Amino acid sequence: MDELMEILEELRPDVAFEKEKALIDGHVLESFDIVSLVGELCDAFDIEISPAELVPENFNSAEAMWKMIERLQDE
Fold it and tell me: What one-character DSSP code corresponds to residue 54?
C-alpha cells in the first residue's frame, strides 16, 4: 500500500488520497490522470489492468485501488 500511496502522491500531490473516497465520482482525478495511473500501476505491481477494470468502483479511493491490485496479483 505504501508504494501505491507514493505513486498517487507523485501523480497528484494536491490530493489527500488517505481521506478521499470519490476520486472518480467527485471528478478529483481526470481521464489523463487515470491513463497515467494505470501505466504506473501495471509497471509497479506487475499486473495487467484490462478495460473491464476501468470502472469508478476500482478507482474512487486508494483502498479500492489496492483491493484491485491485490486481486489482479492473485490471478
Answer: -
Nearest 10 degrees: Cα torsion 17, 63, 2, 18: 30
Q: Which residues contact 73 (CB under 8 A, 6 or more apart)?
A: 45, 46, 47
Q: Rounded to 5 degrees, what angle do the CA atoms 65, 2, 24 make?
A: 30
Question: 59 Cβ partners below 8 Å, 6+ apart?
Answer: 23, 24, 29, 34, 37, 65
In this prediction, residues 52-68 reach a mean pLDDT of 98
How distant, in Å, are the alpha carbons of 19, 26, 49, 53, 66 from that of 16?
Answer: 6, 13, 24, 23, 16
Residue that has been written with the C-alpha cell 478495460 in this structure: 51
* Total-model pTM: 0.95
Q: What is the pLDDT of residues 2-23, one digit of tens each?
A: 999 999 999 999 999 999 999 9
